[in-house]
């Protein structure tokens, strides 16, 4: 298991390095996402979810659709969220690339919040204390943590496995602690806005949430079974589904039947700019192991 996590982290690190080389002002988002995803496959792993390319006030949950014409805007702030899995063992990580010097401080606040994890992520540590450290690192730079986005526990083939790590301390988190052997994606988000996101628009990202058969439609049951075999419980892109022969009509129908979930795009409520850095951590008996090693490799992005 540890070797598979190590491998997933190594490939994710290489994918982020590729991303930095190809993410430029004017570059089509579709080209970026497909090149990164193809690179992951070429290294013998699979994307754990579609590459998320969230720009400016979009905090998370956007991947380009097959005919997407969007490009990286001039002066944009681009969050590149990459998931890699090896036999279901997932690394989840993100970096922020800024094309406007004015937003370096925002990126730095988020990066330093992730750096605090090295000090506070320990077995039997209260999640409240972890969230408090993240929040304080961001507010020290006079920005706001995004309070309704959280890090999350990860299990095999399961990106969100129950426990959450909010970006602000919540009283109920005092009742929950880290345990040796657990795996978490920790993802500080910072903004110059209100510090909240809302659902606004389509993300082009889906996930099978139920394989319960639909009594009135055998054809759609076959479609659902095919999606489950292909992607299991992990998020997938509209692009991927169409490439495998599924149709938009089928996806829409399964969303209405509540067999698929379509992730909403998450946008800062006051349209503030959002930055994000993220890594996956394995809790050990004495501390935590960063799987991708984001803070060891990408400090130059905030300088």
Helix/strand/pairing category: alpha+beta
Spans where pLDDT lies below 50 across 5 or more residues? none
Tell me the span between the first and last alpha carbons.
36 Å
Number of strands: 15
Q: Describe the global form.
A: globular
CATH topology of the largest domain: Creatine Amidinohydrolase
- CATH homologous superfamily of the largest domain, by name? Creatinase/methionine aminopeptidase superfamily
Mean pLDDT: 96
Strand content: 25-35%
Assembly of the depicted chains: single chain
- Total domain units: 2
What keywords describe this structure?
single chain, 303 residues, alpha+beta, Creatine Amidinohydrolase, Arc Repressor Mutant, subunit A, 2 domains, 5-stranded antiparallel beta sheet, 4-stranded antiparallel beta sheet, 9 helices
Could you characterize the architecture of this molecule?
With 303 residues, this protein is an alpha+beta fold. The protein has 2 domains: 2-199 and 273-302, Creatine Amidinohydrolase; 201-263, Winged helix-like DNA-binding domain superfamily/Winged helix DNA-binding domain (Arc Repressor Mutant, subunit A, Orthogonal Bundle). Helix content is 32%, strand content 28%. The protein has 9 helices and 15 strands. The chain has helices at residues 2-22, 29-42, 104-115, 117-120, 127-139, 218-231, 238-243, 248-256, 294-297, and strands at 46-55, 58-60, 77-86, 89-98, 144-145, 150-154, 164-166, 183-186, 189-191, 197-208, 236-237, 260-268, 274-276, 279-283, 288-290. The strands form 4 sheets. A 5-stranded antiparallel sheet has the order 7-6-8-14-15. Strands 2-12-10-11 form a 4-stranded antiparallel sheet. Helix 1 (2-22) runs antiparallel to helix 2 (29-42) and helix 3 packs antiparallel against helix 5 (127-139). The two termini are 36 Å apart.
């Amino acid at each position: 298991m540890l070797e598979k996590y190590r491998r997933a982290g190594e490939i994710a690190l290489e994918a982020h390095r590729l991303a930095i080389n190809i993410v430029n002002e004017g570059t089509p988002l579709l080209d970026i996402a497909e090149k990164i995803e193809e690179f992951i496959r070429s290294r013998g792993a699979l994307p754990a979810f579609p590459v998320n390319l969230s720009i400016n006030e979009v905090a998370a949950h956007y991947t380009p659709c097959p005919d997407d014409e969007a490009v990286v805007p001039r002066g944009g702030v681009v969050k590149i969220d990459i998931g890699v899995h090896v036999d279901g063992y997932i690394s989840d990580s993100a970096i922020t690339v800024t094309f406007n010097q004015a937003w370096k401080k925002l990126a730095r606040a988020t990066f330093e919040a992730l750096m605090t994890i090295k000090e506070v992520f320990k077995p039997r540590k209260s999640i409240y204390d972890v969230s408090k450290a993240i929040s304080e690192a961001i507010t020290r730079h006079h920005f706001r943590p995004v309070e309704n986005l959280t890090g999350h526990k990860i299990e095999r083939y399961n990106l969100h496995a129950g426990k959450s790590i909010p970006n602000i301390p919540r009283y109920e988190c005092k009742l929950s602690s880290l345990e040796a052997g657990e795996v978490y994606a920790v993802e500080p988000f910072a903004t110059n806005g209100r510090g909240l996101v809302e659902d606004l628009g389509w993300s082009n990202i889906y996930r099978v949430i139920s394989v319960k058969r639909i009594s009135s439609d055998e054809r759609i049951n076959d479609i659902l079974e095919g999606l489950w075999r292909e992607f299991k419980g992990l998020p997938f892109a509209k692009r991927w589904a169409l490439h495998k022969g599924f149709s938009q009509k089928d996806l829409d129908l399964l969303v209405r039947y509540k067999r698929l979930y379509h992730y909403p795009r998450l946008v800062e409520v006051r349209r503030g700019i959002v930055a994000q850095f993220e890594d996956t951590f394995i809790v050990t008996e004495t501390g935590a192991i960063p799987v991708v090693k984001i803070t060891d490799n990408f400090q130059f992005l905030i300088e």
